[in-house]
Design a protein that fits this description.
The protein is α+β, with helices and mostly antiparallel strands. The protein folds into two domains: 56 residues, no CATH class; 74 residues, no CATH class. The chain is built from six helices and four strands; from the N terminus they run αααααββββα. Strands 1-2-3-4 form a four-stranded antiparallel sheet, with helices on one face. The longest helix has 14 residues. It is elongated, with a radius of gyration of 18 Å.
Length: 147
């Protein structure tokens, strides 16, 4: 099985709601041996709907009626970029956290082990502006004690 084919298979299984353990078993059936840890790191880089795998998130009832519009509305920008540093680091990252940009856009940020900065925009969020990105870098540097 080619690497791209393997990755597509893993992403498809996870998007169906399969656990990593079940995916690992299905891979063994196909002759692909990955440790659970390697599979977890690999899965972190794939495009997966993780809410299907989190019963707490998927079990929440969706609001209906007029209040649904209010609850689902993305709040307008606060005028200030807010950065948080997560205590639990995502797999494959040296540090990670969340950012809400002054424009209202939201994303998850991470530093890889080589020190490269990455952003994963939140689903349904607008893209940050250039000014947002500059403010984010300044705020992150201040949070990490470098500025």
């Amino acid at each position: 099985m080619e690497i791209e084919e393997r990755n597509q298979f893993i992403a498809a299984c996870l998007n169906e709601g399969m656990s990593l353990s079940d995916v690992q078993k299905r891979l063994v059936e196909k002759g692909v041996n990955l440790t659970y840890f390697d599979l977890r790191l690999l899965a972190a880089d794939l495009t997966v709907n993780w809410t299907k795998l989190d019963p707490k998130v998927s079990a929440k009832p969706k609001p209906t009626g007029p209040e649904a519009t209010v609850l689902d509305a993305t709040p307008a920008g606060t005028g200030k970029t807010e950065v948080t540093v997560s205590r639990l680091v995502r797999p494959g990252a040296a540090m990670s956290g969340d950012v809400t940009f002054a424009s209202g856009a939201k994303a998850e940020w991470f530093l890889d082990p080589s020190g490269r900065l990455g952003l994963n925009p939140a689903k349904g969020s607008s893209k940050p502006t250039e000014d947002d990105l500059v403010a984010f870098q300044e705020e992150l540097q201040a949070k990490l004690g470098g500025g």
